[in-house]
Design brief:
Order of helices and strands: HHEHHEEEEEHHEEEEEEEEEE
Radius of gyration: 42 Å
Distance between the termini: 153 Å
CATH architecture of the largest domain: Roll
CATH topology of the largest domain: Nuclear Transport Factor 2, Chain: A
Helix content: 25-40%
Number of helices: 6
């Protein structure tokens, strides 16, 4: 009887402590799991560090990353004021011995590089092991590039190559309201083309007397365009027509290397060129003609042996004909004496 009472009392107390025992077991189990996870994480981290610090793995990684980068790249350098080619080379990440080798090649071959402010130099680089220049392209002029190339035999080669351009023909026309130069400029015709257009007609047309308001012009000329669709320079004027008071004056370009002909002709095959241009300035007014006049400085009447023109600032002035420059007289008016 007494033994049965103790058993009931033990089971009663055990029932009361069972929840605490379960909680204690769970706490111990959780602590063990966390401790195991921390040890596992530390071991994994240490293994990863060991792998990353492994010499062979680092070499493999560097080799793999080099393969991901492009082997050949092109660097562009815009020439700044006062820069020399040697200073530009110093800015390229190449070996000093290679820099000296390039400079030595240029000096030994007496290569004249066109280092002009704002021009762009292209450096083709090989990144196989260390950076190495395999090609240098420097603009020589509008039509040619100076090119220094590294051959497979590690020798440098210099060439002057013609640039590759796309030639297009451009047609423009317009009405002359004040002067040919200003009217053509409003049609976005390049100033060099306008000057050449005026030079062509300068032997036949007096731009001071013959041009009237509402006269018109037509022109077809060449544009040379690069791969970036940028106009690099202008070619020949293939066709021009200056319509003065309703009368057309058409000219056609003709070129023959065999006969050494490079000129503009009318529809009858007659050259437009004569000895002197009628007006060597476009859009000018006649400020003082040939003959007796009151001298603007001396104040008395004197024979004026020339013809003076006045035009807005910036108007191009052309030579009236071929000759040899003998003397420049500079004062208020600049006089150019031709032989």
């Amino acid at each position: 009887m007494q033994n049965t009472f103790f058993k009931k009392d033990f089971y009663t107390k055990f029932e009361g402590l069972r929840s605490y025992l379960v909680l204690l077991i769970l706490i111990i189990l959780s602590a063990s799991i966390v401790n195991f996870y921390e040890k596992f994480k530390f071991n994994q981290k240490q293994s990863l560090v060991n792998i990353l610090e492994n010499t062979y793995f680092q070499k493999t990684l560097r080799s793999f990353s080099r393969n991901l980068e492009p082997r050949y790249i092109t660097l562009q350098h815009k020439i700044n004021e006062g820069e020399t080619f040697e200073k530009i080379l110093n800015q390229i990440n190449i070996d000093i011995a290679e820099q000296k080798q390039i400079i030595k090649f240029i000096l030994q071959n007496k290569i004249k590089l066109n280092i002009i402010e704002n021009k762009i130099i292209h450096f083709d680089i090989d990144n196989l092991n260390t950076q190495k220049i395999i090609k240098i392209t420097i603009p020589l002029n509008k039509k040619k590039d100076s090119i220094i190339t590294l051959t497979r035999e590690n020798e440098y080669l210099y060439q002057e190559l013609n640039k590759q351009f796309r030639v297009t023909k451009v047609y423009k026309e317009g009405i002359i309201q004040n002067s040919l130069y200003q009217s053509a400029s409003r049609k976005n015709i390049n100033p060099n083309v306008i000057v050449e257009f005026a030079q062509i007609y300068g032997f036949e047309v007096d731009f001071q007397r013959d041009i009237r308001k509402n006269d018109s012009f037509q022109i077809i000329y060449e544009e040379y365009i690069n791969d970036d669709n940028k106009v690099m320079y202008f070619g020949n004027i293939l066709y021009s027509n200056l319509i003065l008071q309703g009368k057309p004056l058409e000219l056609y370009y003709f070129n023959s290397e065999k006969d050494k002909i490079n000129d503009h002709y009318d529809r009858n095959g007659q050259s437009i060129k004569k000895t002197l241009m009628k007006t060597p300035i476009n859009g000018a007014r006649l400020s003082s003609s040939f003959g007796k006049r009151k001298h603007p400085i001396l104040g008395y009447t004197k024979l004026h042996t020339g013809t003076d023109f006045a035009a807005p600032t910036g108007t191009p002035i052309m030579a009236s004909g071929s000759g040899q420059l003998l003397k420049l007289v500079g004062a208020v008016v600049v006089a150019i004496v031709w032989k």
